[in-house]
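Hi,

I'm pasting everything inline rather than attaching a file, because the server keeps stripping attachments. The sequence lines come first, and each chain or strand is labelled.
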Amino acid sequence: METPTVFVSIFLFALVLLVFAPIMTWVERKQSALMQDRIGANRASILGFKALGLIHPLADVIKMITKEDTIPTGAHKLLHLVSPFIAVAPAIISFAVIPYGGTYEMWGAHVSLCVADLDYGVLFIFAIGSIATYGSMLAGWAGNNNWGMLGSIRVSAQMISYEVALGISVVGLFMIFGTLRLTEMGLLQQETFRLFGFLEHFGWVAQGTAWIDWITIPMWGLVLQPLPFFMFLTALMAENKRAPFDTPEGESEIVAGYFIEYSGMKFGLYMMGEWIEVVVISALLTAMFLGGWTLPWLPEASIISYMTPLVGENMANVAAMVLAVHVFLIKVIVLIWFQMLIRWSMPRFRYDQVMDLGWKILLPLSLANVVITGLGILIVQEVTR
Amino acid sequence: MVEAVTENAALRWIPLLPLIAAAISGAWLVFGRRELPRVAVIALACGAPIASFAIAVVQVFALATELPADARFYVDNLYTWISAGDFHAELSFLLDPLSAVMVLVVTGVGSLIHVYSVGYMDDDHRDDRGFQRFFAYLNLFMFSMLMLVLGDNLLVMFVGWEGVGVCSYLLIGFWYLDDYNAKCGQKAFVVNRIGDFGFLLGIFLLFWSFAQAGVPTVEFREMAANVGLLANQTVELPAWLSFLPGYPNWGLLTLACLCLFIGAAGKSAQIPLYVWLPDAMAGPTPVSALIHAATMVTAGVYMVCRMSFAYSLAPGAMATVAWIGALTAFFAATIGLAQTDIKKVLAYSTVSQLGYMFLAAGVAAYSSAIFHVMTHAFFKALLFLAAGSVILGMHHEQDITKMGGLRRRMPVTWAVFLVGVLAISGVPPFSGFFSKDEILLSVNLAHGIPGHEWLWLIGLATAFLTAFYMFRLYYLVFTGESRADRHTQEHIHESGNWILFPLVVLAVLSVIGGFFGLPDAYGELFGVEESNSLHHFLQPVVNAAEHHVDHATEFGLAAITTVVGLAGIALATLLYYWRRDLVPKLVQAIQPLYALVRDRYRIDELYDAAIVRPLAGLSRAVLARIVDQGLIDGVLVNGTANFVRATADGALKYLQTGQAQSYLFAMLLGGALLIAWLVRGA
Amino acid sequence: MGDISPFHFQVVAALIFMIGVLGVLTRRNMIVVFMCIELMLNAANLSLLGFSREIGNDQGQILAFMVMVVAAVEVAVGLAIIISLVRNRDTMDIEDVSQLKW
Amino acid sequence: MRTALFWVFSISAVASALGVVGNLRSPINSALSLVVSMLALAGLYVLLEAQFVGLIQVMVYAGAIVVLFLFVIMLLNLRGSGTRGAELQPIMKAIGSLVVFGSTLWLVRTLAADRAPWPDVDAGFGTTRAMGEALYTDYVLSVQVAGVLLLAGIVAAVVLAKKKVD
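And the predicted assembly:
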C-alpha cells in the first residue's frame, strides 16, 4: 500500500472513531434514560436548541477541561500523570488492524480500508489489549489511596483472568478460517455454504436438485461458531471493566476504584477509553463474526462487476467502498446498542462471581469448543474428501 | 533354500486368547476385592483354550488341505522384537506339521483338562480365591506352552520355555501353605534352571556360530537352510576335558546339540535331571496331567525334533540322546515297580515314557517320537485324570495299599483307567501299541547308533516292566477287597460329570489314537494306502531316517513286543490278582534290592550329599559371610556411605551457606570458567 | 554509526544478561531478584532469536517460545512461593531465608 | 529505518534493564522498568523477523508476567524496602560479577569474528503460520510437555499460595 493511501485510510478511520467516541456519551445517557423510563440528557442547550441532548457531549468536554486537576500528596507524580494515557492509547492503537472495508482500485491507486493489515492481526489486538491493564493498575497505585489500591488489585486479577478465556474462546474460529489476518477473515465470510448440501453428498436426494442450491447460509463466524461469539463478547466486556463487570470501580464498595484520585480531563480520559473500547469491541466482533464490511449473499466483487458498465470502474469502486463502510458501521452500531442493553440491564457481579465466570465457565467451555471444533473440521474434511 | 511361506494372521490368536483370559482373571485377583463369579471364571478359563483349539483345528485343516506337502508353513509375524545390526529376531509364530500336531495336542488335551479341573477344584477351599488363581495360572501355562510350540525362532521358543517353567513352579506349589509343596516347586524350578542354562548356552553357541558363518539368525527355517555351513566345523576342547571321547576336536554342532539336550533333559526329566518330576506330583492332579504328563515335559522332545536338522549332522549327540533316553526309560520303570503312591507310580511311568520318546528321537525316528508324544498325551492324561477321580473318591488318599475294590464303586473311572492301562502296556489295538511298536522297530533298524541291539533290548525290557507295574497299580486299586478305613469306605463315590466327560473323551482317544499313525504295513492289510498319515504329514519338516523293511520283519518285531507286554501283564495278574500271598515272600527274599528300589535308588540323597550340601556350605561360609556381608555390605555399601558422611560432615557442609546468592555466584564463576576454557584458543 | 549486523543483537543480549546477573547477585529484595532472572531469560531469548535469524533457521524461535512458556510457569510458582514466604516469615529479604544449610 | 529502530530499542532495553537493577526505592519502579525493557525487547524480536515471538513476548511478559509481579507487590503492599545500604550485597559479589561481565564481553568479541551480515530468509520466516506448522508437527511433543508443565504450574501455584503452611 502506497503512502498516500495510508493517509486516506487513517483519515477515514479517525473520522469513524472520533465521531463515535463523543457520541457514545450521548448514546449512553439516552439508552439508560430509555430503559429507566425517564427523559434524559435534555438540559444543555445553545440558545434554546437542545437537539435531543446532542449538545451534552460538548458541555462535558468544556467542563472536564476547565476543572481543577488534583494530585494527591504522596502520589507517584509521573505515574499518576501517564496512567490515563496508557489506558486510552491501546484502545486507539488496536483499531489499526481492524478493516472497515476491502481493497479498492481507483484511478490507479490501491486503497485499503485497513490501516495496518497485519499477518497476526487478532493477536496484535490481544497483545495491545494486555498492555491496557497497566493504565488501570498503575492509576490505583499511583494515587496513594487504599481504595485505589484495592481497585488495582481487582483490575489486574480480572484482566489476567479474562485474557485466558479471551484468547482461547476464538481459537475455534482461527482453526476454521486458518488465518489471523482480519481482512482475510472478512473475505472468507463472504462465502456461503449450502445448508442441505449434505443430503446431496450422501446421495439422499438426487444430484443437482435445485432447492438445495437455493438455500445457502453465509459463512459468518456467528453461524460457524455461535457459542464463542457470546463467550468472546463476554470476555471482551470483562476486559473493558464496564457493568456488569465493573467490580474494579465498584462505587458502592470501593468508592470509585482505581481512578478514585482523578479529576478533570484525566478522569475524562478513562471514560473516553472505555467508550472507545466499546467501539473497538463492536468493530472486532463485526470483523470476526458478523462478516465485517461485507453483505451476506452479495460478494463485493459481484457488486463492482455489476456496476462497472453503468458508472465506470473507478466510480464502481468508490460506490462499493462507500457501501462497505456503511455496512460496517451499521453492524458496529447494532453491536454497540447490544452492549448498552447489557450494561443497563444487568446488576454488577460480585467479585467471586466474576472470577468463577472466567475460570470455571468460560475457560472450560472455550477448551471444549476447541476440541469440538477440531472434531468437526476433521469430520467435514473426511466427508468432503 | 528357505521354503515359501504363507502369512496367516489367525495364528496369533491361538496363544493370545489364553493370555487374555489369564490377564483378566489375574488382574482381577490383584485389583479386585473378591473372586469373580464362578460362572465367569469357568467361562473365561475354559472358553479361551477351547476357542484356541477351535482356531487351531481350522488352521491345521487349512494347512493340510490348502498347501502343497513340501511348503506347509503358516507364519504370523507380529513385530520385530530385537533389531541389532544385521541381527533381527521377529516375534512371529510358525505353524508347520510339527507344531500343528503339538498345537492340537496342547490345546485339545489342555481344553479337556480345563473342563476336568472345574470339577476337581470345585470343592477346594484350602485358600481364599484359589479357584480363580488356579485357572489364571493354568491359562498362563497354556499361553506359554503355545508360545513354545508356535515360536518361529529359538528366542520366542525360549520365552515359552521359561514361561512354562514358571507356571509349573507356580502350580506345583499351588497349595503353598503346606511347606512341602512349596519346596517341591522350588526343586522343580532349580533343576529346570540347570537345564535351561544348558539350553541358553546351546542357543548362544548356535547363534554365535551362525553369525560367524555370515548368517546371524536364530530362526528355525533359516538355520535349517544354512546348517550345512556348520557341518564340518569343530571346536577345540580344553585340556581338562581330555577324558572325553573324541578329544581334542569336537564337532561344533555336536557341542551345540548336547547343550540343547541338557535343556531338554531338564524340561523332560531325563537322567540326570529327572529328580524333580516325581516331586512335582505335589501339585493338584489336573496340573500333573496337563503339565507333568501331557504337554510341558514333552517340550524337550519337541525341541529335539524341531532342531532335527542340527541333530542329524551330529551323530555323537544323537547317540547320547538315544542312550540317555533308553537308560532313563529302564531306570524309571524299575523305580515304578515299588512305589505305593498312585501319582508317584504314574510320574515314574511318565519319566520312563519320555525316555522312550528320546530313544526314538535319538535314532532319528522323529515322527515316531512325536507320535508317541501324542498317544502318550492321550493315555497318560487319561490315567492321571482317572487317578485324580480316584483320589477325590477316596478323600485325598493317594496310597494304593489303602485302596482296592473300587471297580464297583466307581464304574466309569474303572473302565477308563483300564483303557489307559491297556494303552500304555502296548496291547493292540490301543494307541500305545502302535507308537511303542514303531519306536522299537526304528531302534532295531538304527544301524548307525553304536549298540543299537542293546538299546532295543532295553526298550523291550522296559515294555515288560511297564506292563507289569501298570497292571500292579490297576489290580491294587480296583480289584480285591477294600483296605481303606471304615469312614472312608462309606463315602467312596463316583465323580461328577465335569470330571467324567473329559475322561470318556480321552478314553476314546486312547483307543483310536493309534490309527492316526497306523504303520503302512498294517494299512496294507486293510487295503489302505499310506495309512501312516502322521508320518507322511511330518516327514517334510523333520529329517527322519527312512527305512524300508519287509512286512515279515515288521510283524515279527510287533509280535515280540506284544508278547513281552502280555508277559508283563500275566506276571502282574499272577502276583497281584491270583496269588497276592506271594508278594510279601518275594519282597522278603530280595529285601535289600527292594528297599533300594523303593527309595528310588537314593538318588535324591546322593544329590543332596554331593551337590546341594557342599554348595550351600560354600555359599554360607564364603559368599554370604565374606563376600556379601564383608565385601559388599561392609566395604561397598557402608564404606561408601561412611566415607561420604565423613567428608561431608568434616568439610563439605561448610560450603552450604543457605544463601541463594552465594550459590549463584559460584555457579556463575563456574560458567565463566567453562566459557573461558571453551574459547581458550580463539 | 553504520549499518547494523546480527552481531549487534548479541552484544545487546550479553549486556542485558550481565545486568540481570548483577541484579541477582546484588539485590536483596526477592521480587527484584526474580525480575532480574526474567531479564536474564529474555537476554537468552534475544540471543537465540539473533542466531536464528543469522542462520535462517526457525528452531531458535521455537526454543525461545518454549522458554517463554517455562518462564510463565516459573513466575507463577515463584510468586506463589514468595507470597507464602512473606505470609509465614514476614520478610522479603533473600538473606533472611537461609535455613537450608548445615 | 532498521538501524534507527535498533538503536532506539536496544538503548531503551539496556537502559530500562539498568533501571530494574538500579532502582533501589521501590520494587514497583523496578517492575515498570521491566515492562519497558520487555517491550523494547519485543521490538528487537520483530526486527529479527520473529514477529510471532515478539507478539507473544508482549502478551506473556508485558501483559501477564509483569502484571503478576505488580499484583503480588500490591497484594503484599510493599512500598520500598528501607535504606540503600540494606539493599546492596557486599562489594565482593559486585566485583565478581564484573569479572564475569568482562569475560562475557570478551566472549562476544571472540564470537564477533566471521559474522555474515544479513542472510535472506523466505517470506514465511517467523510468521504465525510457520511457527504453528513447526510447533504442531516437528515439535508437537514439546507442546504437549509444555501443556503438562503449565498444568503442574497452575496446581503448584494454587496450592502454594492458598493457605498458611506450618
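Helices of chain D lie at 2-22, 27-47, 51-76, 84-87, 91-111, 128-137, 140-162.

If the labels don't parse on your end, tell me and I'll reformat.
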